[in-house]
Amino acid sequence: MSKPPFTKVIQVGVVVKDVDKTVERLSELGIGPFNEMKLPEGRVGWFRGDPMHADFKIFGAMMGDIQLEVIQPLSGNSPHMEFLQTKGEGIQHIACAVEDVQATADELVKQDASVLMREIFPGGRGVAYMDLGIGNIVIELIQRP
Predict the structure, then answer these.
(1) Which helix (H) or strand (E) holds 8?
(2) 44 with 122: CB under 8 angstroms?
(3) How far apart, in whole angstroms, are the C-alpha atoms of residue 80 and residue 67?
């Protein structure tokens, strides 16, 4: 890999049971403002290699240059639901901006990381959740247009 993929952290993702309660409490502490985040219509996703059909309630707030993403899994099988069911609430991923999600994911797989989730959005953007295989660390690779 010519350029390290983890040079630009842009987001920390936290899985919670009740996003409304969490956003209310964080707002009381001075974090925010929070905005609801909608996933793009027409996205196609896979979780652990199988088609992913999941629904979420997601809010985000900027904390300096990094977005705090608060995710409540509502239905379906996803890394967020799996995290909530097996580990409870907490930091589920750290996201990094990359130029090419697929090329970066392929390179990480060659280094024994695994693709936990992959989503492709209309227009070519996409994300991949990469399990680095150590310390329960999941990095979300985000490709922006």
Answers:
(1) none
(2) no
(3) 17
For domain 9-143, give the CATH superfamily.
2,3-Dihydroxybiphenyl 1,2-Dioxygenase, domain 1 (3.10.180.10)
Which residues does the chain have with pLDDT short of 70?
1-4, 145
Q: Could you give the C-alpha distances from 119 to 45, 62, 86, in angstroms and in order?
A: 4, 23, 22
Length of the chain: 145
Return the domain boundaries, the chain.
Answer: 9-143
* pLDDT digit string, tens, across residues 73-109: 999 999 999 999 999 999 999 999 999 999 999 999 9
Cα separation, 123 vs 102, whole angstroms: 15
Provide the β-strand partners of residue 57.
72
